[in-house]
Amino acid sequence: MGRWAAYRLLRRLPSLSKPSSVPLYPSQFSLLSSDPTIQFFPFKPFSSSASSSSTALAHDFDYGFRDLSHFYVDEDRETAKIPVKAYFLSTSINLRSMQAENAGNVVPPTSRTSNYVTFRFCNLPSETMGLGVENNAICNRYMVVFQYGSAVLFNVDDHEVDFFLNIARRHASGLLSELRKDDYMVKEKPTLAEDMQGGADYIILKHLDTDGIRIIGSVLGQSIALDYFVSQVDIMVEEFANINRGMEKTGTFTMHRKKLFQLVGRANSNLADVILKVGLFDRSEIAWRDAKYAQINEYLREEYEVAQRFGNLDIKLKFVEHNIHFLQEVLQNRRSDLLEWCIIVLLSIENVISLYEIIRDSAAGSV
């Protein structure tokens, strides 16, 4: 054995013999494993309470009991990763009926905002209920549902998504043929020196609680809804662009007045939905009360460029509005021209009748 190899081996001996500083919680393990019928779910680390012990427990039981190496905390394991998935599935969700059906899962609100509801679900086998483990933070799944049609899922795997979305679909109207989806990541690091730290497609928090879930869910829900409304306005912009290209070639256009009014109604409803239903510029009461949540809210709005995207949407709506006014004037002029021609035809008919009567009277007088 070479000298350098022997030196590296001696360097490794202390770390190999050093026991893990993280307890294995044998009492919980034996309690859960005493019943052979219990099947352990792949729980992911997640904390929604201010208790540091719950956070530690969540980190220790990383992804359940599938691999004993997960019980040892290294530098990477100090950070719990919580996947966040935002969906826009319908144009409206009845929150009242949804709360009534899932009353046991509703998280009590901490603000007067009424356009969303937060639900907490515990992914545990029925055999473990009553053993005291259902309150552990590692089992929590959260879903924030918004009245305007968004649903944001926290700590939910891909194969679990349909189960949670179906809960919202049962109370939704105006279901979309194709879901809109956005992924994000929240990292929980208790050793973080500051309250939050941003990154590319993720945010690091010292601790994620239910108010943090509401703030993050609110921004992501608004963002994915804004994507939908932007796509609707893009369709109208493309439609008017085709009309303008046709006018450029032929010098005229064909559009019924009813269709134009439908476009006017669609443009106005999209703008009203973004401002009123989505509440894009409504003040967050949670962020107003606590600077920590205000910082998270401001960071995410900047990260998702909410104000800039609404500015682009407003520009497109102004383009649509300009074209609507132009086409309305053209249709109005066409209608005026038609009325004028109708008047001309009626006057001509009246003149012909008058001329006929004159000729007839003169012929009768000559006889």
Properties at a glance:
367 residues; alpha+beta; seven-stranded mixed beta sheet; 7 strands; 51% helix; elongated; disordered N terminus
Write structural notes for this entry:
The longest helix has 61 residues, at 306-366. The chain has helices spanning 3-17, 26-33, 52-60, 95-101, 161-169, 210-250, 257-277, 285-289, 291-303, 306-366, and strands spanning 80-93, 116-122, 140-146, 150-154, 172-188, 196-199, 202-205. Helix content is 51%, strand content 16%. Strands 2-3-4-1-5-7-6 form a 7-stranded mixed β-sheet, with helices on both faces. The chain has 2 domains: 76-222, no CATH class; 225-341. The chain is α+β, with helices and mostly antiparallel strands. It is elongated and about 120 Å long. Helix 6 runs parallel beside helix 9. The protein contains 10 helices and 7 strands.
**β content, as a range?**
15-25%
Low-pLDDT stretches are 1-45, 47-75, 124-138
The CA-CA distance between the termini, in Å, is 146 Å
Task: Give the proportion of residues in helices.
Answer: 40-55%
Overall tally of domains: 2
Largest β-sheet summary: 7 strands, mixed
Would you count the extended β strands for me?
7
Q: State the assembly state of the protein chains.
A: single chain
Evaluate the radius of gyration: 33 Å
**Number of helices, counting only DSSP H or I runs of 4 residues or more:** 10
Order of helices and strands: HHHEHEEEHEEEHHHHH
Average pLDDT: 76
